[in-house]
Amino acid sequence: DTGVSQDPRHKITKRGQNVTFRCDPISEHNRLYWYRQTLGQGPEFLTYFQNEAQLEKSRLLSDRFSAERPKGSFSTLEIQRTEQGDSAMYLCASSSGLAGSLDEQFFGPGTRLTVL
Amino acid sequence: KNEVEQSPQNLTAQEGEFITINCSYSVGISALHWLQQHPGGGIVSLFMLSSGKKKHGRLIATINIQEKHSSLHITASHPRDSAVYICAVSPTGNQFYFGTGTSLTVIP
């Protein structure tokens, strides 16, 4: 399967713990996006990478959140000191970066986080 | 403040009906995307539009840039079309604003 993969698919953690999610984009894709989706809502943009450079971050991304894409391939999203409000589906998407705003984004299956 | 508004929020249709989902946005955009999300979370990109109209099978998407409005039409709807349809706009190509989605149920 050469689509976008995310790991883990589900994560249950206690409030205050740190969690890290991984996203493996389609191999030749330069752009990688992280989104958060809560129940009944559309996805919310969190951050975006062009290769290894993090080019844009949403105001939603508090200082407890950090994302990296060290070699321009896979990316990690870490949440420190989790809060119950962090419970959501975290989605990753990638695109080739060749067509600018008309790039098709390919989404991963998401990581569902539950903070108890 | 929602940059993207969709209507209706929920839609139930009989199999075979023609369906229209609307999207209005308030920001200048370089592209508009229609996405389909099935239960369990998987999202698939259906269309990307910067002008005019696109057709793929039974799906048609239109956009009116001046009116900041787009519609997604499904002809001859089928139960397998049941999903959440999400409109997303991109001002720059780097950041996306999403609507809350339209939940469609097609009854056999």
Task: Itemize the secondary structure elements and their pairings.
The complex is a heterodimer of chains A (116) and B (108).
Chain A: E1 5-7, E2 10-13, E3 19-24, E4 31-37, E5 44-50, E6 53-57, E7 65-68, E8 75-79, E9 88-95, E10 106-107, E11 111-115
Parallel strand pairs in A: 2-11
Antiparallel strand pairs in A: 1-3, 3-8, 4-5, 4-9, 5-6, 7-8, 9-10, 9-11
Chain B: E1 4-7, E2 10-14, E3 19-25, E4 31-37, E5 43-49, E6 52-56, E7 59-64, E8 69-74, E9 83-90, E10 97-98, E11 102-107
Parallel strand pairs in B: 2-11
Antiparallel strand pairs in B: 1-3, 3-8, 4-5, 4-9, 6-7, 7-8, 9-10, 9-11
Count of separate DSSP helical elements of chain A: 0
Low-confidence stretches of chain A: none
- Percentage of residues in strands of chain A: over 45%
Write down the overall geometry of chain B: globular
Number of beta strands of chain A: 11
The secondary-structure element order of chain A is EEEEEEEEEEE
Biggest interface goes to: A-B, 27 and 27 residues
